[in-house]
Design goal:
This protein is mainly alpha-helical. Strands 1, 2, 3, 4 and 5 form a five-stranded mixed beta sheet that branches. Strands 6, 7, 8, 9 and 10 form a five-stranded mixed beta sheet that branches. Helix 1 packs across helix 2, helix 4 crosses helix 6 and helix 43 crosses helix 45. It is elongated and about 130 Å long.
Length: 997
């Protein structure tokens, strides 16, 4: 039929105005014979324009009309469509939102009549109504058809706004319940002898159990079986397993009518490796002995739905006491939070921004936060024991466990995100939680949610806004009411009771909840701007403190820093506005004693935590320049060295803070994976800082006693770890001193001056003060403690020529000038090079002497009672083992291999491997052991605030060492096992390479 151009133009414009994206195709469909009676009806066009996708709705309507068996049936559908607005809205609404249900209607063209009824009982059907709807199903195929017919009515109420998202989710759960019952009936009818042998209960878990199911989701279940009266238990369980397996296949298998949804029984004890069906007593025994924290969390939603409901109720009642004791388990909160982080970590990077359910700010964040609070407070408050997320959130707010405003925002965000999820799944009836990228899909979803002006733009903005609310609130939800418990609230606000607040703090790992509440009250009470900012910061900080081994210390440290800096304008602003600063501070304050002690002596150093550049170690040149400038401004030697030690304290804090942050990781950046890089960074930073401090002390002493020039040239030579750039936080500075009288100066005068300088430097660097002392150890000098403290270069030359022992040659491997006269230092190194890298290497006698010394040291120097498998310095496979092995290689082959002529252990080990003096496998084993032992010593100093070579005996300190080394809560045993394994392998290499075993 030819259509006049004017009419086509008018219709085309009307279709565009009603939301059609392909008006030409829509015109052709409207001109089809099937729609000829409605061609001129404006009501149809208005109804199509109100749908999520008018083009899809129109196409679906034409397909449905074409599928009618005859003209009479087609006429009946059209007449009802024109006369009944409820049918028109429901049918077109479903066709516009779901291509899958449009396909179903095209295959089963009489099912549109399921949408005609509009009685009050149809508005909110329950399990009974759905059971009636499925009653005729006798096999998997007919069950699928009946299921889709019921789903039509749910979708129709949903897209028309008759039910909200929570009601829709409840209806979907009720339909799933009816479907499981129908599937079990079919399975029992197929095997009546199995049905007679056993009692089988189907307990819904997850979203089905929580009465909040999606359109397409795995239906999580647990099966409980018991023998029927007089039946053998073993045979009964076999029968129950066959029935359960058949039920799962009926729902999950793909037939000509597709599938319903997968039935997932993996939440059962032992997961997919455990028996499909267990008795109630077997379930109880498992949960009492073996269950993990997440398994109790999953039981929050357990609900009997099919089979023997009495047995199902017994199951829930029997396990309920265990569920509500879960919060008393060690590391309860960290376990739950770690589970959440693991879920996020497993999302492919390309999908994380589109992941509606599992991504940051997604549905799972709300669900985890709510479940965590339920488990903590549901022990004493039974009103919180709901399996439905929104009902539980409402109860938490009513009880004061969550702030009302926070709860209202989360409720709104959760409803919006669930609505998005429903619309995404409804389109193809496929299980997905990814927001589509195609603009047509986004347009359909936006329109289905009532966003009509700019559906795609409005949808994206709303989604990001709600996701941001969830991301911001889901962790604070747990901590903010703790502040309300101690702060002044607005009239009418419900607060967390003191007992509930203590309960929550204990669950978080606080050993002294009463003290923690006092700190919170001191920080957050009042109406000042300072208190208001603290109330904003503390919910997040409390979470970060709880993620450490010592939350109490973290909170106490934060109070001390805040008391010291609270009146400075920049402190709270830094924590509030610089995202990294607050988390970095929380990590530093709760990781041990050393860093907080350093910070408390000069709290303004907290400014270093504001960004990555603040934690970068400064090079030796800049450090020396700053220290020498400070020394130059000071009056007198004591004031000068005090200034140098102040710089050292600040830089030690910078180094320790950077080490802690890199070891723990932050929300923005993961923990440093390369442990060797962490060790090298600390070793270089502390060694450079020590060298610069000694240079400053030397300058101060010389200026105070002699003015610009000492009567003798003077150099400080770093030895041991200092010379090797491997100092730890608790290391002394091993040195030797060398001098050379200036021209025309009497040797006696020069010697007195040099000895005076050494004595005064050591005194000033150890003076009692707020700053940590720097201990100078000169015991590696010739003749050890009995020899002169300082010698001339000629004296060293004479001594080494006549008296030098092999251990002294070994000690000189680490010698490096660190301060004083550079030319004298260089000449000292030229003097000792032939000793430490002897031509043609060590003789066999010297090798035997080194081995003898090492064996003697192992037997005599290990402290009495120390565990040799856990002593980081002198124990099996520890620092001493690795270093003596490497140094023996240097003494034997350094003359021929330039790469071995280094003071650094790891560099020498790599050079030995490159020269094929040691295999790559052996080099890696020794390197791993050395790095681990070094990190253990650093960790002990950071945690305890004093040096140590063994793991702490105190449980909390041991856990803190574990956190620094990357072991989560509850994995201290794994840490010790790994340490023993690593060092045992290293010792085997040492036995072969060093002792020649």
């Amino acid at each position: 039929m030819n259509v006049p151009q004017g009419r086509r133009s008018s219709t085309f414009t009307r279709l565009l105005r009603h939301g059609f994206t392909d008006p030409s195709a829509a015109e052709r469909l409207l001109d089809s014979d099937e729609l000829s009676p409605l061609r001129a009806d404006p009501v149809l066009l208005d109804a199509l324009g109100a749908t999520a996708d008018p083009d899809q709705a129109l196409l679906g309507l034409v397909r449905l009309l074409e599928a009618q068996p005859d003209r009479t049936a087609r006429r009946e559908l059209l007449d009802t469509l024109i006369a009944s607005k409820p049918l028109r809205d429901r049918l077109l609404g479903v066709l516009g939102a779901s291509a899958a249900l449009g396909d179903h209607l095209a295959r089963h063209p009489r099912d549109w009549q399921a949408l005609v009824m509009y009685e009050p009982e149809d508005l909110h059907p329950g399990v009974e109504e759905f059971e009636r709807g499925l009653a005729g199903a006798v096999d998997p195929v007919s069950l699928r058809v009946a299921y889709r017919r019921c789903l039509l009515s749910i979708a129709a109420r949903d897209v028309c706004g008759t039910t909200d998202v929570a009601q829709t989710a409840a209806e979907l759960a009720d339909l799933a319940t009816a479907t499981l019952r129908a599937a079990l009936t079919i399975a029992q009818a197929a095997a009546p002898e199995d049905a007679a042998l056993c009692r089988l209960a189907v307990v819904a878990m997850g979203k089905c159990g929580g009465h909040e199911l999606n359109y397409v989701s795995d239906v999580d279940v647990i099966f409980v079986g018991e023998a029927a009266e007089g039946a053998d238990e073993g045979k009964a369980l076999q029968a129950a397993t066959r029935l359960a397996s058949h039920l799962m296949r009926i729902c999950s298998e793909t037939t000509v009518e597709g599938t319903i949804w997968p039935v997932d029984a993996n939440l059962r004890p032992e997961g997919r490796n455990g028996p499909l069906v267990r008795t109630l007593s077997s379930h109880l025994a498992y949960y009492q002995r073996w269950a993990k924290t997440w398994e109790f969390q999953a039981l929050l939603k357990a609900r009997p739905v099919a089979g023997d409901l009495e047995l199902g109720e017994q199951y829930v009642a029997t396990l309920a006491p265990l569920v509500w004791q879960a919060a008393e388990r060690e590391n309860f909160v960290p376990d739950v939070q770690k589970m959440r982080r693991r879920v996020v970590a497993n999302i492919p990077a390309a999908e994380i921004e589109r992941e509606l359910k599992l991504g940051p700010g997604g549905l799972r964040d709300v669900e985890f936060a709510v479940q965590l609070l339920q488990l903590v407070h549901g022990r004493s408050d039974t009103s919180l024991r709901s399996g439905t997320t929104l009902d539980a959130l409402k109860a938490l707010a009513a009880g004061g466990y969550v702030g009302r405003a926070d709860a209202a925002q989360l409720d709104e965000a959760y409803r919006f995100l669930r609505s998005m999820e429903h619309r995404i799944q409804l389109y193809r009836l496929r299980r997905t939680h990814l927001v589509p990228e195609d603009e047509a899909d986004l347009r359909r979803i936006g329109r289905s949610l009532g966003l009509r002006t700019d559906p795609v733009g409005e949808l994206n903005r709303a989604w990001r806004r709600h996701s941001s609310v969830v991301r911001r609130l889901h962790e604070k939800l747990f901590y903010r009411p703790l502040l309300d418990a101690v702060a002044q609230l607005a009239p009418g606000e419900t607060r967390l009771s003191t007992d509930a607040a203590r309960e929550r703090l204990v669950a978080l790992g606080y050993a002294d909840p009463a003290a923690a509440l006092r700190h919170l009250e001191a920080l957050a009470s009042g109406v000042t701007r300072k208190a208001a900012i603290q109330r904003t910061l503390l919910p997040v900080l409390l979470g970060w403190f709880a993620d450490s081994a010592d939350p109490d210390a973290g909170l106490l440290g934060f109070r001390k820093v805040s008391d010291a800096l609270g009146k400075t304008p920049w402190y709270l602003r830094l924590l509030r506005d610089e995202g990294a600063a607050a988390q970095n501070l929380a990590r530093v304050l709760s990781a041990g004693r050393l860093a907080p002690d350093l910070l408390m002596r000069a709290p303004e150093a907290v400014a270093l935590l504001g960004g990555p550049s603040g934690l970068e170690p400064r090079d030796r040149g800049h450090l020396e320049q700053e220290i020498l400038a400070a020394v130059g401004r000071a009056d007198g030697g004591e004031q000068a060295v005090t200034a140098a030690r102040g710089v050292r304290r600040r830089e030690l804090f910078r180094t320790a803070a950077a080490d802690i942050v890199a070891s723990y990781g932050t929300e923005e950046s993961p923990a440093e994976a390369d442990a060797g890089a962490l060790v090298d960074r600390v070793g270089n930073a502390v060694s450079d800082l020590t060298a610069a401090t000694i240079a400053g002390a030397l300058r101060a002493v010389v200026r105070d006693g002699w003015g610009d020039e000492l009567p003798t040239r003077f150099a400080v030579i770093g030895m041991g770890r200092f010379g090797g750039h491997e100092l730890g936080y608790g290391s002394d500075a091993d040195v030797v001193f060398v001098h050379e009288p200036r021209d025309g100066v009497d040797e006696q005068e020069a010697a007195e001056a040099a000895n005076t300088v050494v004595a005064e430097m050591r005194r000033l660097l150890q003076l009692p003060s707020l700053d940590p002392p720097l201990l100078i150890d000169a015991d590696l000098r010739p003749e050890g403690k009995t020899g002169p403290l300082v010698r001339t270069l000629k004296s060293y030359e004479a001594y080494y020529r006549r008296w030098s022992l092999v251990w002294e040659s070994q000690a000189l491997l680490r010698a490096e000038p660190v301060a004083g006269d550079e030319d004298l230092g260089r000449r000292f190194i030229e003097l000792i090079d032939p000793l430490r890298f002897p031509a043609e290497g060590l003789g066999e006698d010297a090798v035997r002497e080194i081995r003898r010394l090492k064996a003697r040291m192992e037997s005599e120097r290990l402290p009495r009672g120390a565990d040799p498998t856990l002593h980081a310095k002198l124990g099996r496979g520890g620092l001493s083992d690795v270093e003596w092995t490497v140094q023996l290689l240097q003494l034997r082959h350094g003359w021929a291999e330039p790469g071995l002529r280094t003071t650094r252990t790891r560099e020498a080990l790599a050079a030995a491997c490159a020269a094929e003096l040691i295999s790559g496998e052996y080099a890696a084993i020794l390197d791993d052991a050395w790095i681990l032992a070094t990190r253990v010593r650093n960790a002990v100093m950071l945690v305890r605030g004093r040096a140590g070579d063994t793991f702490p005996s105190d449980g909390r300190e041991l856990a803190a060492v574990g956190r620094y080394l990357g072991y989560g809560p509850g994995h201290v045993g794994d840490m010790l096992d790994d340490y023993r394994r690593t060092t045992r392998r290293a010792r085997a290499v040492v036995e072969e390479l060093f002792y020649g075993a």
